[in-house]
Each structure stands twice: as C-alpha cells, then as structure tokens.
Amino acid sequence: MDGRAVDLNSDVGESFGRWVLGDDAAVLAEVTSANVACGFHAGDPSTLRRTCALAVERDVVIGAQVGYRDLAGFGRRFLDVAPDELTDDVLYQLGALDALARATGGRVAYLKPHGALYNATVHHDEQAAAVVRAVGEHDPSLPVLGLPGSALLGHAEAAGLRTVAEAFADRGYQPDGTLVRRDRPGALLHDPAEVAARVVRLVVEGVVTAVDGTDVAVLADSVCVHGDSPGAVAMAQAVRAALDAAGIAVRAFA
C-alpha cells in the first residue's frame, strides 16, 4: 500500500443449492475484489456462475478461492493431502471457475486459498509449493494473494509469480503477525465502527493491535472483509465509508 490506496476483498459464492450463505450482492457493492468459491469447500456451479456475473456487473475483479475438498467441513479442517494431489485439486478448481467466469464476460484474475488451506500454507512448505505449482501450470500471470511472510508467498515469489500481501479487517492477530485461530478468544471482531477505524489505521500507519494489546506491523495491498461473518454487509459498508472519508482510494490490485 502507498498509504492512500488499498484493495478490499471478500469471500463470496459460498452458498450451495437452496442453502444461502451471506448477501453476495450487497457485499459486492462495497469491495473491489471477489474471492469466489470454486466448488470444493462451498459453492455449486449455478451459484458460482451467478456470483461471477454479479462481479462482472459491479466491475469487481474475480479471484479463485481454492480450498480443500471438504464441503462438509466448509474447508476449515486441515487435510493432509499429498502435494501432487493438491496441485491437481487446485488446477481443477482454477479451470472450473475460470470457465464459469468467462461465460459471464469475466475471468479469474488471481488466486487466494480458503480457510484451512490458507492457514496451512502459511507454514506448510509442501502444500504451499503445491498450490504455487498449480498456479504456474494454469496461468503464471495470476497473482497469488496471501499472508505476509507466509510460505505461500515465499514459494510464489521464488517461482516468479506476482505476490500480493493481505490483511484482515475482522480477524484477530497474534503478536507475530499470524491470525488467531477461529476457536480461540479474540479470533473475530464484530463492531463495524471498531473494524473500520482499524482498517484506516492499517492503511495509513501499517499496524494493527494484536490480541495482547501490542502493535504489530502488517503491510498489505489488500484487506479482506469476510462475506460470511455475522453482520458482514454492515462491516463492509462501514469499512468502505471510513476509507472514503479518510481520502483513501479503494481500487483492485489486479
């Protein structure tokens, strides 16, 4: 970030059949990049096509949010997948979402892992390398979005891929810059005003307050507002309004 501009991303397309999760249309009115599910952790083909069409209509960049093959666990359980199998799973998801995106006049413009795969690729070298290998085999021009200092971004950079560092608006941080596990106190923030002020400080000063009260440096080009969190729409609206009021441009990185 240059201190006056940032991308806002959110997880969308996570409904399945008649089961609806979140208000994608309202969230897509506030963000500039959409992490669209690819059918492995959430989303069915019709949901994903509708979501891509909405993103194209709103001029929101489409990203592939790839995950473990774990619909029952919503992709939030670590799976010890063999690297070659994981590469193939990621390739499959990239290809499927890109086909649906292109059918709506868009295209997949970046990749971001979801849930447990995101967390695993912070430290798990083999899985991080497997994800990066899939990107390179599918389209080496795709940026990879991930946590600063993660194995994922390290492998992506080593492979010559563009890396994009990400921060989280509504997630708790450890003093070392990693995220608080979802089953721990302080993992999620719920007050839209508090989250909005936090994001403005993050963009301007490059720091967030960790769960122990200390400030931790977090430099990022994109900030995630979760689309499936309670009050996600109000959260996204508050963050966007606060950035606008602070004179910070909100624009896609891809």
TrEMBL record:
Span of the signal peptide: none
Q: Which major enzyme category is it?
A: hydrolase
Any one Gene Ontology molecular-function term assigned to this protein's record: 5-oxoprolinase (ATP-hydrolyzing) activity
Keyword line: ATP-binding, Hydrolase, Nucleotide-binding
Q: State the superkingdom.
A: Bacteria
Keyword Nucleotide-binding recorded: yes
InterPro entries cross-referenced by the UniProt entry = Glyco_hydro/deAcase_b/a-brl, LamB/YcsF/PxpA-like
Reactions catalysed: 5-oxo-L-proline + ATP + 2 H2O = L-glutamate + ADP + phosphate + H(+)
Q: What is its EC number?
A: 3.5.2.9
Share an example GO biological-process annotation for this protein.
Answer: carbohydrate metabolic process
Which SUPFAM superfamilies does its entry note?
Answer: Glycoside hydrolase/deacetylase
- Residues crossing the lipid bilayer are none
The protein's matches in HAMAP family, at most eight in alphabetical order, are given as: PxpA
Membership in a protein family: Belongs to the LamB/PxpA family.
- Tell me the function of this protein: Catalyzes the cleavage of 5-oxoproline to form L-glutamate coupled to the hydrolysis of ATP to ADP and inorganic phosphate.
Q: How does it assemble?
A: Forms a complex composed of PxpA, PxpB and PxpC.
- The name of this protein is 5-oxoprolinase subunit A
Species in which this protein is naturally found = Nocardioides zeae
- Source gene? pxpA
